[in-house]
Structure formats: C-alpha cells, structure tokens
Write a structure and sequence with these properties.
heterodimer; A: alpha+beta; Trypsin Inhibitor V, Chain A; 7-stranded mixed sheet; 3-stranded antiparallel sheet; 6 helices; about 25% helix; globular; B: mainly alpha; Butyryl-CoA Dehydrogenase, subunit A, domain 3
Chain lengths: ~300, ~170
C-alpha cells in the first residue's frame, strides 16, 4: 500500500513525542484532588437536600442534568406534570420515541431518518434502518444543513454499545438509568450533546441540539425520559427490507400489519421504505403498522 | 493497583498516541504536549471514573478533544486552568516543528470535522462508536466523514511532497 494512509502513518510514527512527565503530573494531580475534596465537603450538604426531595419521585436524579439555577422543588413539580400515565401522553408539541418501554419526547416536527450521505440534514430522529453501510457522497450533501441539524439517535445496546463513558445516573420508574451529562461546544452556533441509557430496555439515546438555547433544549429531552405504561411497546428501530420478513417480525412482536405501495424512485422496488408510525414510536400492543413499500418501476 | 500506579501505567502507555493525535488535530508538538498534560491531569483527578470505564481510551480521548476545543475557544494557548507552567516532555527543536508542519500541510485539505474523525478513528484506533461518543456526532456521520476524508487525502498533492520532508 502506498496510499495517503501509509504516508500519514509514516508521519505519525516519525513525530517526536517526548517522555510523559509523570512525576509532575502526579504532583499536580494530587494537589488538584486535595483542592477538589475540600470543595466537595462544602457542596455535600446541598446535594443531600436535593436527593431527599427527588428520592420520593420517580424521576430521581434527573435534575442533575438541569442547569443549577432553579430550586430542586420546582424541578420535581415540572417533571411530575410531565409523567406519562395511561393513555400515552406526550408533552404538547412533542412526540415520543424510544426502544422497548423507554422513551423520550422530541419536538413533533422532527422527522425520522432525514439523512443524506448519510448525515442528518434536518432536525430528525435517527433510528438506524437507513444508517447502515449506506452509500456515501464524496462531498457532504449540504454541510450547512448538517451543521444546523439537531438529532436524537436511538441505539439498541444489544447490537452496539453507544459509548463506554456512561455512568450510573439514577432511576426512572424504578429502572436504572446511565448517562453522560451534556457537553456543549460551538463552531458558530452552540451545540450540546447528552447520552442516556436504560439498560433493562436495551435503549440508549444520544441527543444533540444546536442553537442559542441548545443547553435548555437538551435538558428538556433528557428530562422527558420515561417508561411508557405496560401494554405499549416501541416499534422496532430496524426491520428487514423485504415486506414478508418485516411483516413476520412485526407480527411476532404482537402488531398487525398492512402494506401500501409508494412511488419512491430512489428506493429499490419491493423494499420496505418506512413504517407508519415510524420506527421507535411507542404504540399500543396489537395496533396496526403500515409498511410502505417501494412500487415497481414504471 | 492503586490510583497512582494505575494512572502512571496508563499515561506511559498512551502518551505517544495522545500527543500524536493532538498534533494531527492541529497542535504544534509543544502545544500537543501541554494539551495532553492538561487532559491527563483532568483524568487523574477523576480517575475512579476512568478506571470504571469499559474503555479508558474512549474516555480519555473525549477529555482530550474537549480540552482542545476549550483551548481553541480561548484562542490563546497560554491560558489554562492552572497557574503552573507544565513540564516540557522534550526541548523545542526545529525538526519537530518541520514534522508537525508536514502533518498540518498534509491534513490541510481536510475540513476540521473530517480531520477529527480521521485522527480518532484511523490513527488513534477508536471504534466507530467510540469516535461518535468522543466527538458527539452521529454514527452515520463518523462513517461518511471518514470516507470523505480518505477520498480527499488521496487527491491531495501535499501528500506527494511529504516523503522527503517528513522522513528526515
């Protein structure tokens, strides 16, 4: 191989790196820890108070992801108002998406798998089916659109681990929650990203929001994490591409199906293009799912 | 193994890859060494979390990328959260500057976002999922940026000039 990768590999190997200054690092690290421990003692009283309030509700510890300026009591009240009880209720202007019985609420106008090349090009939920080894474009379809897109990616942790950085976070309706707290950075507009996982449901959510109020909007999605009532289940994130196999899988999960043909020149005729409702939507068990299948070429 | 031993073993093993990654991400060798020290220091303070992580590299590289973003945001490399001047791993040398320059010229054809993916995925050997986590981007975006970046690199004239300049 004499391609660019090899030349870069040679450069990589030729870069001088020096020796790690271990003694200095350890010395500075120990001092930083001692400073931090002193601060932690002062803060612990406040933490105990917050945990005491939240411990009585089902949204334990989710306020940790909120900005610290609001009193804990208010947080609990807000969350309580949004707890879903049968029938399934999403906060106004939002729709629920998830895996198993874990779900979060995203703005209702967010699409599903609005991708090209295959990056998100509009505010969208990414549920995997279009995100496999798709064709790439040599140039991003529209870098500005990608930069401006907010997205929520749902991972099935039985297939792939979204991150090894998840840490114990609390519980929601008795189920363990792991998280990576939001981090924000900006090239132009600010983008904030957070990760949540509900191991018992094999569900992980990575939410990334761009815009002036990115932090608050990420917090809203994080704060909406819930367990949908028994009797509901999220539609699969991915389905086989042939209608018969997709049907079989949905039936096996307890859903009725119907097939409609749609004209989508971009898709291979006879393949499942999408479902209605879209993958990841929690629906009552036994409800009907429409498989939209690409019509034969005319 | 106690915290200090564990940390030292990790830092020793990964120092090269971390410094080289930082150079590939746009730092001079000297800046890269400072940046890696800053990142490792943060990791030392929160070592129980690093030690708990299934994959320490993913964790530490995320810290490195965040530290780099912070420093770019401040626009001045000298400013950092400590009042102490970090130790230098090696004295400054013109050869180091040339090699770092060669790296930056070679990667100049890449947009910063594509470059980040190439460095973490290809050179630092993070998995696709780890790269997505470290950069806070979608999985599909990792794939497409990597593929695009490699296509761009294969067309880049600078790479043809590198051999003489870099292997001295």
């Amino acid at each position: 191989m004499t391609g660019p990768e090899q030349r870069l590999e040679e450069l990589w190997g030729s870069l001088p790196v020096g020796e790690p200054p271990l003694d200095a690092l350890l010395d500075r690290g120990r001092r930083a820890r001692r400073r931090r421990q002193r601060v932690a003692v002062l803060a612990s009283a406040a933490v105990v108070a917050v945990v005491a309030v939240l411990g009585s509700g089902s949204y334990v510890a989710l306020d940790r992801l909120r900005t610290p300026d609001g009193p804990a009591q208010t947080t609990v009240t807000d969350l309580d108002a949004r707890i879903s009880r049968p029938p399934l209720v999403a906060p106004p202007g939002t729709r629920l998406v998830g895996l198993g019985r874990a779900a979060v609420a995203v703005p209702a106008e967010w699409g599903t798998n609005d991708v090209a090349c295959p990056e998100p090009i509009a505010d969208t939920v990414l549920v995997g089916s279009n995100l496999g080894d798709a064709d790439y474009c040599a140039v991003a379809a529209d870098p500005d659109a990608t930069a401006a897109a907010s997205w929520l990616e749902i991972w099935d942790t039985r297939r792939e681990t979204p991150s090894h950085l998840l840490e114990p976070y609390g519980t929601v309706d008795g189920l363990e929650v792991l998280a990576i707290e939001p981090s924000c950075h900006g090239r132009g507009a600010e983008r904030c990203t957070a990760t949540l996982a509900v191991p018992s449901q094999h569900a992980a959510f990575v939410v990334s929001v761009v815009g002036d109020d990115a932090q608050a909007r990420v917090d809203e999605v994080v704060g909406s994490l819930q367990v949908v009532p028994a009797g509901y289940d999220a539609l699969p994130l991915t389905l086989p591409s042939t209608p018969s196999a997709a049907r079989e899988e949905l039936r096996g999960l307890g859903f009725a199906t119907r097939v409609v043909e749609v004209d989508t020149p971009a898709a291979e005729p006879g393949r499942v293009v999408e479902t209605v409702p879209p993958g990841g939507t929690p629906v009552p068990l036994g409800s009907q799912v429409t498989l939209r299948v690409a019509a034969p070429a005319r | 193994m106690d915290r200090d031993e564990d940390f030292s073993a990790y830092a020793e093993a990964r120092w090269s890859a971390l410094v080289r990654s930082a150079v590939f991400l746009g730092c001079s060798v000297e800046e890269a060494q400072d940046l890696v020290q800053t990142a490792l220091l943060k990791c030392y303070v929160g070592w129980s979390r690093v030690a708990r992580a299934d994959d320490r590299d993913a964790y530490v590289f995320r810290v490195l990328v965040n530290a780099l973003r912070d420093s770019r945001r401040r626009r001045w490399w000298g400013e950092r959260a400590t009042d102490e001047v970090p130790e230098r791993g090696v004295p400054d040398a013109t050869g180091d500057v040339d090699r770092a320059d060669a790296v930056h010229r070679a990667l100049a054809g890449l947009s910063p976002v594509n470059r980040d993916v190439v460095v973490l995925r290809y050179f630092a050997h993070l998995s696709e999922a780890q790269t997505a986590a470290a950069l806070g981007i979608a999985r599909g975006t990792v794939k497409s940026r990597l593929s695009r970046a490699l296509a761009q690199l294969s067309l880049d004239d600078h790479l043809l000039d590198l051999r003489g300049g870099a292997s001295s």
